[in-house]
Structures are given as structure tokens and as C-alpha cells.
Automatic annotation (TrEMBL), chain A:
Part of the FGAM synthase complex composed of 1 PurL, 1 PurQ and 2 PurS subunits. It catalyses: N(2)-formyl-N(1)-(5-phospho-beta-D-ribosyl)glycinamide + L-glutamine + ATP + H2O = 2-formamido-N(1)-(5-O-phospho-beta-D-ribosyl)acetamidine + L-glutamate + ADP + phosphate + H(+); L-glutamine + H2O = L-glutamate + NH4(+). The active site is at C85, H194, E196. Pfam families: GATase_5. This is Phosphoribosylformylglycinamidine synthase subunit PurQ. It comes from Lentzea aerocolonigenes (Lechevalieria aerocolonigenes). The lineage of its organism: Bacteria, Bacillati, Actinomycetota, Actinomycetes, Pseudonocardiales. SMART domains: GATase_5. Its main location: cytoplasm. Keywords: ATP-binding, Cytoplasm, Glutamine amidotransferase, Hydrolase, Ligase, Nucleotide-binding, Purine biosynthesis. It comes from the Bacteria.
UniProtKB/TrEMBL annotation, chain B:
The active site is at H55, H106. Residues 15-59 form the Phosphoribosylformylglycinamidine synthase linker domain. Belongs to the FGAMS family. GO terms for molecular function: ATP binding; magnesium ion binding; phosphoribosylformylglycinamidine synthase activity. Transmembrane segments: none annotated. This is Phosphoribosylformylglycinamidine synthase subunit PurL. Pathway: Purine metabolism; IMP biosynthesis via de novo pathway; 5-amino-1-(5-phospho-D-ribosyl)imidazole from N(2)-formyl-N(1)-(5-phospho-D-ribosyl)glycinamide: step 1/2. Its EC number is 6.3.5.3. Residues 213-370, 587-722 form the PurM-like C-terminal domain. The lineage of its organism: Bacteria, Bacillati, Actinomycetota, Actinomycetes, Pseudonocardiales. Coiled coil: none annotated.
Amino acid sequence: MRVGVITFPGTLDDVDAQRAVRYADGEAVPLWHGDHDLKGVDAVIVPGGFSYGDYLRCGAIARFAPVMQEVIEAAHKGMPVLGICNGFQILAEAHLLPGALVRNHKLHFVCRDQWLAVENNTTPWTTRYDKGAEILVPLKSGEGGYQADQKTLDELEGENRVVFRYVGENPNGSRNNIAGITNARGNVVGLMPHPEHAIDALTGPTDDGLGMFLSLLDAVQVKA
Amino acid sequence: MSIDTVKNAEATPDQEQPYKELGLKDDEYARIKEILQRRPTDAELAMYSVMWSEHCSYKSSKVHLKYFGDTTTDEMRAKMLAGIGENAGVVDIGDGWAVTFKAESHNHPSYVEPYQGAATGVGGIVRDILAMGARPLAVMDPLRFGKPDAEDTKRVLPGIVAGVGGYGNCLGLPNIGGEVVFDESYQGNPLVNALCVGAMRVEDLHLAHASGTGNKVILYGARTGLDGIGGVSVLASETFDDSAGKRKKLPSVQVGDPFTEKVLIECSLELFEKGIVVGIQDLGGAGLSCATSELASAGDGGMHVWLDRVPLRAKNMTPAEILSSESQERMCAVVEPANVEAFMEVCRKWDVIATEIGEVTDGDRLVITYHDEVVVDVPPRTVAHEGPVYHRPIQRPADQDELQANTPDSLERPENVLELIKIMAASPNLASKKWVTQQYDRYVRGGTVLAQPSDGGMIRIDEETGRGVALSTDCNGRYTKLDPYEGAKLALAEAYRNVAATGATPVAVTNCLNFGSPEDPGVMWQFEQAVKGLADGCAELGIPVTGGNVSFYNQTGTTAILPTPVVGVLGVIDDVRRRIPTGIGAEAGETLLLLGETRDEFGGSEWAHHVHGHLGGLPPKVDLQREKLLGQVLVAGSRDGMVSAAHDLSEGGLAQTLVETCLIGEVGARVFLQGDLFTELFSESAGRVLVAVPRTEEQRFTDMCTARRLPWRKVGVVDPGSKALEIQGLGELPLDELREAWEGTLPALFD
């Protein structure tokens, strides 16, 4: 399994995403924002951070990076793509996922261990979880409030496209407690919390996040 | 605009200069004239004034700081690869790794502009670490504020916390600890100290030298602007009434851009990796004045700088302004001519502006030209390293005896001790700091093994071997006020103990010494005593001070802050997997043991402060041999898997430690104590740690303590089935009530 991990100027969690891929016995392939090809990877992770300083609006500049044009094209052909935190914001800006991420309702950056419910375990990133399972992973963001119009929300709920939901107190004002969603085809997933920081209980709250990378391993192997 | 050149200075020897406004004294100005054999140019005056300021020259503290070097033996120095005088101290931690760490203050800017002041404090210390050739890996922030309910605290605290988080989070550096302390004396003088730790392979250590005639000096990073020019603006105020009207004044506090710094870090690390940097220096306080004079001074030749090549972000900046600007996110490198193109190539990859602004020369002068006119021509050492040295008057304050005589013995002790546990847990200084720390990313880079609210932060350095470091910063300003010598030792003892409580072996010390005005003989006495106490303490523990920072003039009117020598201790752990967590309940069936001795010690205690508003008497006794023994026992306990949790006892005593271990571990405990329960629970005797040991290891562990003559007592058991802290003879405190008390205070104050 070869998984591309994109680095934009200002990306921070690329090293973590690469480590998570390695923990799942995959090969992490660094992709640079200026690259014009995806180096033959099986899947792509758009990691967290502050791409281009989050100037203008989170993810608004990154979506125009050369490598994102390749990602958009590959996603439309069905390649598994995962956007974490800033990566989710970038995928939303790139219209691979609907809705937008706005400033947390309490206005502060929030870093905490967050319980999530797995609502959809049919995406290539979530098959290792039981539907309804609760996992504990870090959430760390200042602009993690998921917003979309009612029609989009109805669609997401109706089509089972909410992948993760916050359990307990809503940490950032996300509508319907949405923490992560997928596209209509189910290959692109974006979430605000950080599964790549929860792959080893030594350095994270749990290793609950590893399931996402192991799920991908299964998906890629099935395809092969 | 007319530029004051060396030629002009020679021709107009009697021209009046605003040296007083720039903070120079008559004799200092006279000495500059003597060095130069003429009056300085505006640009030279700007350089000398800022480099000879207290902040840059350490002119009041130098004679005292020397004591750190005098008391450091060769044995203590054995693991030190670089020490005081470099940008940051460097320690060999084994497996080929070198770790560098340093703390710095950004107190005054953070009072004026809390967000930017705190943000650029983080940015500055991170560049110091980068300038050693290391990858910055984590930050910590010891913060101190006035009364928690004061209006001004409500102004500065949220801004400072957001600034620390905003900058550090965007840089991708986990924040793994620090302090938040409230005391009235910090009203109008909040303390914002920032510590950064970084690592590199031993062979990659970079020092700030400008060696090799013909080598190029490259300025890279952000453009230079008018922010952070501060006092030097008096030189420009008259020159700039040009046709465009008066230039808008910019804030004297620098404005940070963490994105630029993140890119600068990655760009610099790639440059180091390619081995094309001869010398490197960050631009912090005093900007280019400092970087050029320090690089030239530390090298073996002179330097020529073409100031008009510096990329600017404002129009019509004078040479003095360009030299003094403290615009953030800039670095200066010395590069061999053959490598300049390779250097530029890396900078282009990262979209970092890089400009060749100078050259190392074979002379011994720092010559700076502006459009072919010489505006600076000085011996660089006189700017950077041979500033004034003051022997300030020292006088033990007249009321020190009275302060020490006013012991807490007569304070009324509580009838309801159980209730006091809850009251103290909710006091602002002891309350959970989650409101603050949850605004900081502690996970980024995936190496954080321990972070707040643990005693110390711990990060993994080597993913293969698991080698890592632990860090803690501590200081109790009330102890230091009562006895600065012992207080500094107590700060050292606590930081040392906190590191040991994680299972790491303490190896090196840094400091950030925050005091009032050095012109006050009483403050200088506190300073001298604190330096001696810290140095003597380090000698006793056998670990060196590798660097530090001094911040004076922290006072409002004539009232100084509590003397606050913040001490940072670095420890090494060969495998982070054997770290000791803070919360209990990880193993089924744990016994709680109290290591060390409890005496009736309440001078400077949190109880006296919170309940009685009292400060007097003497601080707790400190026994560093005992601290050392305690550290050895904890490390042995960790190595042999005998300890499942540990938490040090400090402010608030055993009561607070019990509350925190239960709440962090989310499990109850039954505690049985003997003697006077108030003293047992609230005394702040030093040299104590509460440990949880699995019942199967209890005998082995206590045998070890006995054999090593470390006093220990069984004080309780962890009770996995219970949701309360039960103190035999007093009663029960439900954990949810305790949590509400402990976690509710800061949100109620600042949300």
C-alpha cells in the first residue's frame, strides 16, 4: 500500500500522517504542494496544519495548489482521499466535500481528547470499525465548526454520509454534531479530529485512530 | 532625506545627539566617543544604545552571572556541548543526540500588547533553538499574572494565552507544560516566559560564527519593517516631515507571523542538512544590530554589510531604523561563496526571501554602508561583547527581618479540614489550568509522551530507541521573597523533582530570572542571592546551568514583583515507554506511598496566601541531597517497573497532590494519615513525592527505599470501585464535587 501525504507550506501533521501509514504497514509517499503528479499512490492523505498560514480562509489557497488538481481528478475517479483537520477544510474548499468549517462557537482554539461515534463504516477509511463504535481521538482546531445549509444536511443524513459524530458536549458548534463526512461516492472522507495522533497510547489518548489506516490497507488490498 | 554618515560625524563633532532618550547614560555616551575617537553616527548610536541596553548587554547582571561559570566543575560540564554565551545551551543526551533548550522572557511587550507580545516571545525562543542547528520540538510557557479577578488580568491573560497558542500551534510545536501563577505583585507586570527545546545529531551543532574571509552574509526570512523599533524612533522623528506628510508610527511591539516562521524553520533545517551554512544567527532583540555585531564579534575577521540591500516592507527607513528593527522571522547566515547558489535554491523552494547583504572581511571592523556611504565603522566586540558592566549597589532590604519574623504560626488553622481540601483545590493558583492548556496543541509531531497536567512534559527524541527528554519549569516567588537564596534552591529542587517524577534523570538547567529594578539595591540583593542559591544548588546536584535570561525592571512605581527566578530542568530517559504517569488507577490494586518527610512548614504556603492573604516567615527547608536520592529512587522505580504513578508535592501540599492524582486518573482512593491532619495535608515541605506502586511491587519498592535511607510511609490505597477521595478520620469527598471545584475556577473567571 502506497499512500501519498501532502505537504503544503505550513502543513504540520504530515509527519504524523506518514507515521500512521507506516504503523498500518503502508509506505508513506511525501507529496509536495507544487507536484504535478501523485507518484502512483493508492490513496492520498491531506494532513492538518495551517497551509499557507490559513491566510484568506482556511484551505482557500491550498485548493489551488498544483498537487490538489491531481487529487481532485483522482478523487473523481474513486481514489480514497482522507482530509484531516486543515485537510478537511481544504477538501471542502475544493468542493470534494460539501459544507464549510467555521470558527469554533466559543472562539477559542480547542485541544482535547474527543469521543466520536462511528456512523458509517462502509468507506475505505472506516471498515475496521463497528457501526456505532465510540472512539477517543484528539481534536485540535480553532475553526472546526461544521456548517452547511439544511438541504445539504438532510442529504448527508439521508444518504448516511455522516461518518463521525461528536459524542457528549459539542466542542465547536458543528451542526448535527458532525465531526466527519464523506462524498456521495464514499471514497473521500474529511474529519476535524486527528486519528493520526491516536495510533499509540504512548503518544496519544488511545490507539483508536489506527483503525482508519488499517481500513485503508484492507480497501487497497481488496482492490489489488 | 539626509543620512548621518561617518564622514558627517567627523565633520560635525559637536552635534547634539539624543543619547539620553535612547537610554544611554552620560558616561556610556562618552565611552562610545572614546572607542570611535569621534561622535557616533545616528546608526552607530542606535546600535550601541540597543546593544548596551540592559536587555542585550546584561550590564547589571553580568558580574553576578559569572558565578554560574565559577561554580560549574569539569565533571558537571562533561555532557555540555555548548553553554552560556551561545544562543542556547546544548547537552549530549546519548545515542548521538544533542538537545538544546532555553527560556526567555517577553514580559514588557506582553503587557503592552498581550497577543503579539506573547506570540513573538514564542517565536523568538524558537529561533534561538533553530540557530543552534536543532529542530525545535516543543515549547513550554511559564506565565504569571496579577490578581485573577482584576480588570487588567482579564485584559492580559486571554490575550497572552491566545498569543502563545496562536503562534505555537501554527508553528507545529507541541506545548508540553509551563505554569500559570497569580499574585498581586504581577499586576501591571505579567511575566511571559517561553521555553523551547530542540534536538539535533551531535555532529550538526551550529554556532554563531562569521569565519572565513570572503564568506557571504545572507539575510533570509521576512522583510524588515518599522515594527519593534521602539526607542530608536526618536532619531527619525524630525527627519521625516517630508512632502508625503508624517509617517504613521507603528507599534513598538513586534508583530509576528507564525506561518513565515514555520517556513523559515523548514528552510533552515534543509540548509543545515545540506551542510552549506558556516555560521548562523537569529534576529531577535536589536535585530540586525545584534546579528551583525555578534556574528562578526564571534568570528575571526571583520564584516562589511551593504544596508541598502536589506529587503524592506516600509518606505524611507533610515539606516538606524533598519539596524534596530525587530521585525520577526528573520535569520542571518554565513555561507561560503561557492555555496551561495545552493543556499538560494533552497530558499526559493520554500519561497523564502534571501539576500546577500554582506561579506566577511579580513579586517577587524564592522563596516556598514548605505548607498556607498559609510554609516557604521566600529570594532564589533565593543558593540556585542564589551558593553558596560555595572557593580550595582546591593543592600538587604531593611524590612527583610520583619518579613521573616512575621511567621504563619499565629494564623488561625481551620476546623473543617475536609472542606479546606475543596476550597484549596478551587483556589486560582491550584485550580486546573485546563482553560489555558486546552488552547495549546500538545499532540503535533506525535512525540509527546507527557504534557500538562503532568509534573513535567516529556517528548520522544528517537523513534527507534525511544530515547527522550523531560522538562519542567518552576518557581515559587513567595518563597524567593522570604529568602531569595533558599527560594532559588527550592525552585531548582521542585523542577528537579518534577523531572524525576516522570522517570527521567535530570541533567541540565536553564533559567529565566525575572526581577524588579536593578537600580534598587534591595532588588539587586534578591538577584545576587537567587543567583548564588541557584548556582550552589546546581553544584550540589551536579548538573550545570547551560544558559539563561535576565529580565529586570519588572515593577510598577517602586513596587517590584516577587523575585521570580524561573528554573527549567532537563532530564533524559533512555526509553520513554517507561515514563511514570501522574494519574493513579492504571494498574489494578495500587498502594499509595508518601516518600520524604513532612514538617510543619507554612511560610509562603498557598494556604497562608489564599486563606489569610499572609506572606511571612521562612520558606520550607530544602535538602538537595535528599532531592537527589529521591530522584534516584524514582528513576530506579521506573526502570524496574515498580512505580505505576508519581506526583510531586508542592504548593497546596499532600491534599492537592491527592486531589490531582485522583482526578487525572479518574479513580478514587482511601487515605490514612497520622498526626495533625492539617499539617499532614497542607504543609509544603520540600523533597516529597506521592507514588502509586502495584501491590505486587510494594515490598520490593519499600525495601529499596529503606535500603537507600529514603523515608517512606504508606498513606493509602487506590480504590478502583470508588468515586471519592476518602480521608480516614475526616470523611469523603466525591470526585465529581472535587472536579467541579478544581476545573470550575478558571472558566468562571475568564469565559
